[in-house]
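Q: I have 328 residues here and want to know how they pack in 3D. Can you give me a structure?
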Amino acid sequence: MSNFAVEASDIMKDFLFYLQTIKGRSPSTVDEYFSDLRTFFRFIKRKKGLVPDSVDDADIKVDDVDLALIQSVTLTDAYEFMNYLLRIRKNDKAARARKTTSIKSFYHYLHITKGLLKEDPLEKLERPNAKEKNPLPKYLTLEQSIELLNAVEGKFKERDYCILTFFLNCGMRLAELVAMDYTDIRSDNTAQIIGKGNKKRIIYLNDACISAFHAYMKVRPVEGVRAADKYALFLSSRNRRISREMVQKMVYKYLEKIGLDAQGYSVHKLRHTAATLMYQHGDVDIRVLKDVLGHENLSTTEIYTHLDSSQIEAAAKSNPLAKVKPKK
């Protein structure tokens, strides 16, 4: 029996059993989540004066951690905890990053999945930088991308499907997408978007994008849209231009639906996914990909050349010296 089955409070158990039975996390992974949460709430209880100073950290129980204590935690508490991990426990970056993921996932679960928290105080908690100076961007596989699209449902399914299709096919930034007007999309299946530094660029919409666009425009509200948002492509449930926050919540909802909510994925990872799929499956020249993504420097785009190990393996095998062996 796992330690958490005995030592964790009921609200913690709910989360840990959810990870194991619904999300399919391995028992060892779930035990790591519990260890991280136990360390965090031991720190919180000591910080808030809920245990005597004479009690060792290892003896602080967490089987009484309830919603009231959880709600009392602030973003400042979390950053103090990260400082404690660094200076007192001497945890390295990888360990601190894992603990950050664990507590953020717990609060996300209580806020989004269970609806027990009106707000997520740790939503803006940043993870420690990865060990690599320039870590490789995380992306969805082709199969995961298709699964994400197939997960779309509900009242706004045409809108949501179109948004995800644009992200996954065009590599757009979040700010670029929400700023789009439907009049930006031209009859030649191109669109002009505004990128970083207010720079304009042309993107080309493939068949999937055009199909999703037309399906959405058939149901896009016309009545009740205020003058300022008259031409906005994507509208909220209140018939206003959709906000970045609403798009983020929508994307997280579908990522969670396919089991990727706590694995470091985000809206921006869909941009990485588009770039990676184009590079890996479309034989797109890196200089062309630079223009597609609206990068200022080629060096920014070149990170995608390091993602496909199969291409690296194929290149090595294609070397004309690959089959040369020493003379006997």
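Q: Anything worth noting?
A: The first helix runs from residue 4 to 7. The radius of gyration is 24 Å.
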